[in-house]
Design a protein that fits this description.
The chain has 14 helices and 13 strands. With about 375 residues, it is an alpha/beta fold. Strands 3-4-6-9-10-11-12-13 form an 8-stranded parallel β-barrel, surrounded by 6 helices. Strands 1-2 form a two-stranded antiparallel sheet. The chain has a two-stranded parallel sheet with strand order 7-8. Helix 8 packs across helix 10. The chain binds flavin mononucleotide.
């Protein structure tokens, strides 16, 4: 029997991912001044031991004021490299690849953690709030403070911060970098006409609006080794009239490819606050069509994400050529052994082999015994 597509390796530049199942980036709100700690190591150990092909570490701020919340990871300082290196080691020891999502929160920064309501810190804890920046001085949602419009020289400084953070990530040992261009954060807000009303070279036409994203992609590409893969998470559509359409994203993906990006991680939404979020329909695989169309339209590898919870569904997405990788977020929180479940449900001859030896050996014996007595593997 041919190996299920979900369990075939994928090569992207110098990196080989052993299967197509990826830990989607997930903020933990547990960093201390941007530094990763024990929680991050323990959190990632669950997935690494579960046999994932690779992981994207959560949104990691390239500048202190680019954090979403006070608990976000950061790589604006060399002192933050060691914490990331510890997480990298967790995946490295299990032969999984690991990358990091570099981010600037823009006008959605300075917010409270989800369990504190995710509102603006300026309202919840004004003394701890910081001023935010954006392409235009338009608040993210009603009740949020207006950001300052970024002058062109400050745009250049943030581009340089992305490159500097990428260099620190390389020093920490990551296999790839993902640029966070989604969910209403700074890069996405430049791309979207709903947030960008500039009249200079960074606003107006579609080409001008994607300039900042491309500047960041070029700068990060130049800062990392030539054989290191570069990914980009896009909000493929804004889901709001007048916002980004899938055609815009296919055009952006083509240009990102030329800038040296190897894979588009296809998400959506986030340009406006609670209104847009609550209007959103989350059905299984709701964003897969974006990954499929970007893949075909731009001729670039893609990753699908969004309520992918069943192994046969994940397998179909890869086998049908809708995406090269599938990212799982909440399902992996619920079941860090998803890869083992998938290996059994898809009928791998030795499903236990996806797990580390101390688990695999005993599960193989248990499975054999269960088969002998007519039970399920
Ligand atoms: C706790 C949590 C934190 C998240 N943090 C990030 C993040 O740091 N960066 C990002 O691009 N998406 C983030 N997301 C979105 C996920 O990566 C993913 O796209 C989304 O949850 C949909 O996938 P799922 O249905 O498999 O969870 C987060 C989601 C959750 C649940």
């Amino acid at each position: 029997m041919a190996e299920p597509a979900l369990f075939t390796p994928l090569r992207l530049r110098g990196m080989t991912v052993r299967n197509r199942i990826v830990v989607s980036p997930m903020c933990q709100y547990r960093a201390d001044e941007g530094r990763a700690g024990d929680w991050h190591v323990e959190h990632h150990a669950r997935f690494a031991l579960g046999g994932v092909g690779c992981a994207v570490l959560e949104a990691t701020a390239v500048e202190r004021d680019g954090r979403i919340s006070e608990g976000c990871l950061g790589l604006w300082d060399d002192a933050q490299i060691d914490g990331i290196r510890r997480i990298v080691g967790v995946y490295r020891r299990q032969r999984a690849a690991v990358g990091i999502q570099l981010s600037h929160a823009g006008r959605k920064g300075s917010s409270a953690s989800p369990w504190d309501g995710a509102g603006p810190l300026a309202t919840v804890a004004p003394a701890r709030a910081w001023p935010t920046v954006a392409p235009s001085a338009l608040a993210h949602a009603s009740g949020w403070p207006a950001p300052a419009e970024l002058p062109v020289d400050a745009i250049g400084r943030i581009v340089a911060s992305f490159a500097a953070a990428a260099r620190r990530a390389v020093e920490a040992g990551v296999d790839f970098i993902e640029i966070h261009g989604a969910h209403g954060y700074l890069i996405h807000s430049f791309c979207s006409p709903l947030a960008n009303q500039r009249t200079d070279v960074y606003g107006g036409s579609a080409d001008n609006r994607m300039r900042f994203a491309l500047d960041v992609a070029h700068a990060v590409r130049a800062a990392i080794p030539g054989d290191m893969a570069l990914w980009y998470r896009a909000s493929c559509v804004d889901e709001i009239d007048g916002g980004i359409t899938l055609d815009d994203t296919v055009a952006l993906a083509r240009q990102l490819k030329t800038a040296g990006v190897d894979l588009i991680d296809c998400s959506a939404g986030g340009i406006q606050g609670p209104v847009a979020r609550s209007a959103r329909r989350e059905t299984p695989g709701y964003q897969v069509p974006y990954a499929a169309q970007v893949r075909r339209g731009a001729g670039i590898a893609t990753m699908a994400v969004g309520l992918i919870t069943e192994p046969h569904h994940a397998q179909r997405i890869v086998a049908d050529g809708d995406a090269d990788l599938v990212a799982l977020g909440r399902e992996l929180l619920a079941d860090p052994n998803f890869v083992y479940r998938a290996a059994r449900e898809l009928g791998l001859p030795e499903p236990h082999a996806v797990l580390p030896a101390p688990y695999a050996f005993f599960l193989a014996r248990r499975n054999m015994h269960a088969r002998d007595v007519g039970g399920k593997r």
